[in-house]
C-alpha cells in the first residue's frame, strides 16, 4: 500500500481520485446539470418577448384594424354573382358573393380542410371545394358536406357610395 492512498483527504483538490487528465472534470454530472438549467433559464427568458407579442396579437385580433379596400362597384355585381379579390394581404384570396339586393358576404376562399381554393356555384347556391368535395353555406360559411370541419373565415364588407369595401376580418370563434 502506497503512502498516497493512506491520506484522507488527499493534498490535491480532486474529489473523484481517479481523474488525472486536464479538463476532464468540466463535464461531470453536476457541471452538466448546471449548464442545462442555465440553458433552460436563458431559453425561457429569451422567449418571453415573443410570447408577449403572440398573446397581444391573439387577444387583439377582433379589434385589429385593416385598411378599407374597394372590392367592386355595386352596379358591377348582380344578385347571385361573385367577385374574387384579395384581403387583407395581396396573397390572401377571398370571395365576395351578392346573395340578395342588399346582402353581401365575403369569405377567405381557402378551404379549411387543406386550403384548396373554394369556388361559388351560382346554380347550386353554395361554395364548393373541388379537392375533396367539401361544401360550405354561402350565408354563414359553415361546412355542409365533405371533410372540412371549420367554417370559412369571414370578411366584413360595407357598402358606401355605390361601392363595396372590405373593412375587416371576423374573429374565428370555435
From TrEMBL:
The keyword ATP-binding does not apply. Keywords: 2Fe-2S, Disulfide bond, Iron, Iron-sulfur, Membrane, Metal-binding, Transmembrane, Transmembrane helix. Residues 74-166 form the Rieske domain. The chain crosses the membrane at residues 31-52. It comes from the Bacteria. PANTHER family: CYTOCHROME B-C1 COMPLEX SUBUNIT RIESKE, MITOCHONDRIAL. This is Rieske (2Fe-2S) protein. It comes from Fictibacillus marinisediminis.
